[in-house]
Please model this.
Amino acid sequence: MKRTFAAIVATVAILGAHRASAQDIVSGPGTLEVTVIPGGGTFFTSKNGAPKFGDYTLGGTVTYNINRVVGIEGEVGGSVGVAQDLAFGGTTSNQKTPNTLSYSGNVVVSAPTHSSVVPYVTGGVGGLTVFDRASLGIANTDSFVTGNVGGGVKWYAPNGRWGVRGDYRFIALRGKDTGAAFFGQDDRYAHRVYGGIVINAIR
Model:
């Protein structure tokens, strides 16, 4: 009789713990999120004779969510030069655009929702390194100060471990007199979009 009672108590305890742990899993942002960006695009507008062009973009972010509304995000990304028609120097030719490396720190403000879909706005400052491309007159690797504003939406899976993210940024780059004529002498603007996979590293 005692053994039967002990077995019933143990079974109830195990089932109760399992149910409680299942209830603790909430679909939504974790304390620490990692976003892997497998693909996107950055599109620079033309300025004072410097051509517009687009690059393939990839990278990653780490976000520390102070609470469900405010987070701090560090981002590192890169763009891979793509061959395309460029109108530059009075002629149009098919050239490969320069590779770049971007890095920024951002504040992310999310909608205070408890659903699996979380819209957000974001903004921050950082830098962009443009690697040399002799065919475009970019003789040296150079770095520029950037600022960005934008937003997007995240969707989290029911298990609370992962999700997906769509993001848009308007990027402003500060030019300098020592920059190359193709890219760097004038302030430039860009539109960037990407899709990413979100991993809740710490719940």
Summary: The helical segments are 2-24. The mean pLDDT is 89.
